[in-house]
Amino acid sequence: MGRDPQLLAELSRLSGLHIITNTGYYQSPYLAPFVYEMSPEALACIWMKEALEGIGDSGIKPGFIKIALSNTNGRITPIQQTILKAALLTSKETGLHIQAHTVGGETIMHALEILIVENFNPSYFIWVHADSEPDLSYHKKAALAGMWIEVDSIGYRPFSEHYEILKKLIELGLLNQILISQDAGWYNVGAKDGGNIKPFTTILESFVPFLRERGITQSIIDQLMIVNPAKALDNTKKDV
Questions:
Q1: Would you state the pLDDT for residue 50?
Q2: Are 148 and 179 within 8 A, CB to CB?
Q3: pLDDT means over runs of 10, the chain (240 residues)
Q4: Interacting residues of 92 by C-beta distance below 8 A, sequence separation 6+
Q5: Which fold, 5-232?
Q6: What pLDDT is recorded for position 240?
Q7: Residue 195 pLDDT
């Protein structure tokens, strides 16, 4: 969907924040025509080059692989299977984690099938938009296999909905594999001032206090906000 690593580097310098950008490709209709003609191995070569040498001529290296797993009746489409397999190859070679935009429990189960066939360590795979699936049995299966479960879009719906999801996942014993996020930003080209841009501070300024008010302990908050993200973004190449 487009990256500007130099801009991100400047924002990081001005703000003092660590900002991580990505390699990988998204999904139709945001794929370049050449992607449909390439094998997983050929796509992986592009992403591995970025991981090892930097994006374009910026010298800035990605810190994760971002893909999407669009589906038909719960089964990942052929082009997205190609992209998934390319991501698995890249992760195995570089240690980068995969963040996969995935809507629906059946789709994540299909992804898990592919991970198993490709002998890939699921702890390097993050199920993005896991909160879109209401049946938490899928989350439990994915987490028990080793996947990270990301509860995101916080701020788009009432906080109470995300709180209930987190509470149930924690009760299932999955605290150590939960990530939280906002899906914030979204500059709309053509709209005045970029449109209604979602703030990047919702979790820190509003959602965390909301959790505290409902009895979520500081230990749990630290696990969600510090410990888990550090592990999920640790690109030390282990048993991928």
A1: 98
A2: yes
A3: 89 95 94 97 98 96 96 94 98 97 96 98 97 96 98 94 97 98 83 85 97 98 98 78
A4: 120, 240
A5: TIM Barrel (3.20.20)
A6: 57
A7: 86
Residue 47 has a CB neighbour count (10 Å cut-off) of 25
**Tokens 């999801």 appear where?**
165
> What's phi and psi for 105, nearest 5 deg?
-70, -40
Res 1: pLDDT: 61
User: How far is it, in rounded angstroms, from Cα 13 to Cα 185?
Assistant: 19
Tracing tokens 């300024």 back to the chain, one arrives at 205
Compute the residue count for the chain.
240
- Alpha carbon dihedral 21, 87, 231, 207, in 10-degree steps, equals 60
HSE value, Cβ hemisphere, 13 Å, CA-based, for 173: 5
Helix (H) / strand (E) element for 74: namely none
SS3 (DSSP) at 76: strand
**Position of tokens 């592990």?**
231
DSSP for 77-132 reads -HHHHHHHHHHHHHHHHH---EEEE--SHHHHHHHHHHHHHTT--GGGEEEETGGG
Q: Calculate the CA 39 to chain-centre distance.
A: 23
Q: Phi/psi zone of residue 146: left (φ > 0), alpha (ψ -120 to 50 degrees), beta?
A: left
CB atoms under 10 Å from CB of 163, counted, come to 18
User: Collapsing DSSP states into helix, strand and coil, what is residue 213?
Assistant: helix
What's the pLDDT score for residue 231? 95
Q: Are 58 and 201 in contact (CB under 8 A)?
A: no
- The domain ranges of the chain are 5-232
At 228, the amino acid letter reads: N
